[in-house]
Amino acid sequence: MSTTSQLCTFFLDNQMFGIDVQTVQEVIRYQQMTDIPLAPDAVCGLINLRGQIVTAIDLRKRLGLPGRPEGQLPMNVVVRSDDGAVSLLVDQIGDVQDSDHQNFETPPETLRGSTRQLILGAYKMKDRLLLILDTNRVIDVTSVND
Amino acid sequence: MTIEDDELIKDFIVESQEHLSDVESQLLTLESQQNGVDVALVNKVFRAVHSIKGAAGFLGFEVLESLAHRGEEVLNRLRNNEMRPTSLVINTLLRATDRLKELLDSLESSNQQNVTEHIIALEALLKNPDDTSIENVLDATIDDCEEIESKSTDAIIFAVGLNVDIGSNTEVSSNVAAKTESVVTPPVPPKSTEILNPLLHDTAMTSAADSTIRVDVVLLDTLMTRVGELVLARNQILQFTGELGNSDLMRTTQRLNLITTELQEGVMKTRMQPIGNVWTKFPRLVRDLAVICGKEVRIEMQGKETELDKTIIEAIKDPLTHLVRNTVDHGIEKPEVRLSNGKPIEGCLTLRAFHEGGQVIIEISDDGSGLNLDRIKHKAVERGLISQEQAARMQEQEISQLIFLPGFSTAEKVSNVSGRGVGMDVVKTNIEKIGGSVDLQTSPGVGTTVRIKIPLTLAIIPALLVTSAGNRFAIPQVNLIELVRLEGDQSSKSIEWIQGAPVYRLRGRLLPLVYLRKVLKIQEENGVPPDTINIVILRADDRQFGLVVDRINDTEEIVVKPLSKQLKSVSVYSGTTIMGDGKVALILDVLGLAYASQVISKLRDVSLSESNSFAKESNGTQQTLLILGTGTCRRLALPISQVARLEKISKKAIEFANNQEVVQYRGKILPLIRLAKYLGIENAAGPEDDLLNVVVYIENDRSFGLVIDQIVDIVELALQINHPSTREGLLGSALIHDRVTDLVDLPALIRMLDKTVPSSLPSLV
User: Fold this and answer.
1) What residues pair up with B539 in beta bridges, in sequence order?
2) What's the distance, CA A19 to chain centroid?
3) Of residues B228, B572, B573, nearest to A51 (C-beta)
4) Does position B149 have pLDDT exceeding 70, yes or no?
5) Strand B710-718 relative to strand B622-630: parallel, antiparallel, unpaired?
6) ipTM over cut 0.90
């Protein structure tokens, strides 16, 4: 059985993450954002994507990673969702990779906290691990947040 | 059939539907013209039916053609004044129109359908327009319309049977026999050449009314996204042009900028439709229902032009129809009941639509009996929807909401019109599906109002743009009452504190203040108070409060876009919008803001009103007065709330109308009143200044200009009138700042003037 899927990969705090390439609408450079006072912590602004208003979620904050170093501009991975497009802010964009399901493993028991619900599992790559995110849960900031 | 034919048929259907939708309202208008019809209007209807007849014949839809033909003949009589538009005539025509519509909807099988009952009725009308038995035929047949459709042969027999019943009318029965035959053997389709000419002729005649075209909504959506992209590209070009500094390029870019903005606005508006489009069918609906229920109902519509996104219009169509139905069936009483309750026989159903608080409100109200709250409570308990204890504890408002529960109906008997208990809950779910809400207010004997609030989603609303800590926000104009700007000294002095809550005295009333920075937790880094304070005075749920913002930018028409799922929980925003420069701005939800800052809450309401009354007690009648100087040393005062504007007007601008001094002011004629003269004060040849000080006063849409010598001051004080005046136009005198000041009674003064100013003049104003 040829159980491979294509993953769009990106980097956050030197870790490699991936999401199903089918859910990705486009990848764009840093865009100016409109601040949203009082918004949930991980929601960091609104972007005008060719007339469409897209909410940007900072994946570092969402995954509880340390803040982005100053001066480093994030990139937007725009994903499709039932509620329109949502942008995920990442440090750097990687490649589209074919990954074999044989190399897939669910997260270890030791992974705890809110992050565990956001990670579907990991692909064991040659030199590192590729963590697969549950896009639907990641963008649903209201339910899993603390 | 060839593709060409298909196209032709499609056009025919679309065109005929359009014709018929107009015909309905036109027939209703005709019905109201009992004493002589508007021939031009009859002609319009005639032409519409005629074109349908012509095209149907050409395309070989005989049944359709024959029905249209009979209708046309009746219309011809009307046109020649050989027949009066009695309700019988109009009824028969309306029903024939309905049948035509049905035929159009199922065009393929239209030739197999039966329209005999309509043809009989129309022919009988031609024979004898006052024969009321026609209606019986039609009523009976209409009631059993479904049956007729399913079994066409039965229907003929049925119709014949009926005519036997009313046997005395031999003409009609003989007609039935004739018609039964003619249906069995359809008329030979006319030669195409004969029919082509009138068809062409008619299209030319009606084309004037067809200033609109149909466009696929998907196409509009795509267009809108493309324009969005264009805006973005434009913004980038603008940026580059600024860097390059080439003046030619700059000019071209500016033009591009302008065109893009206009294009964007235009495309956004294409999706908007006035709500009147949905309402057009209601007069007919109400009329028909009223006849069935034996009631007299008049329908009134306000705010037809209120625009809504097309998708929303589609979504509210059915709920609205249902509510209108309900109102006629349950809301409005029978004529005799109304009469005994001292109400006019004719009930009134009012449809109102308007923008409020960034939402569209649609109200359906009647002047009927109102909801019977006791019965509702009783029924709800009986049906096990609520418990007895719950019922006992319920407030009136809560009880009226019970009717939105699934399976609820109080109707004693289930009528054809409504009352099957699958109504209001469906209305509610449908409205809620598009993010709206339904609310009901009722008072026994006076009437019921159903209020539907729909989010604008894509609706375009005027909004005020404000800035706070570098963030731009839009405030829907409907919530806006006024803007106050405090400068210098005022800014630090005029804001007072009640137990830590800032308030501002707005013309003597205490107005709670809300700092946008604080509500949104975007505090300033340095604590230096700004030297100007901008207060946006807003209304939320009948309460007013002042929102303090850093800067008030501008007003703009914005297109409201919904909040994404991630932001739904943030109550202070109602939506987002894209500004002219392509940036996103948040739309403030004024009500949410009021709650978030606790301007509205039960507790605060009490404490505030208490402190308010306290302020009133201690201060007596606190008023803000405008102090004027007239004549040598007379001082006059008038409440500033009566002053619309203060103007300086050049003496050269004074003209005369009817011996009265007037000036042109904002496109109107403003009569000038020399206050000194009217109050009998010696006018000591005031300052030889070219500019006159004029206080503009507006009463009942009429404005007056009071000419005074100087504006001395604005003071706020507790007023005590010491010497009531005996002179008309003055309230009395008081001591203000140690000077005796006469208080002007402006309304009285104007009344006095009405006698002296020529009566023709105010009507001009």
Assistant:
1) B544
2) 7
3) B228
4) no
5) antiparallel
6) no
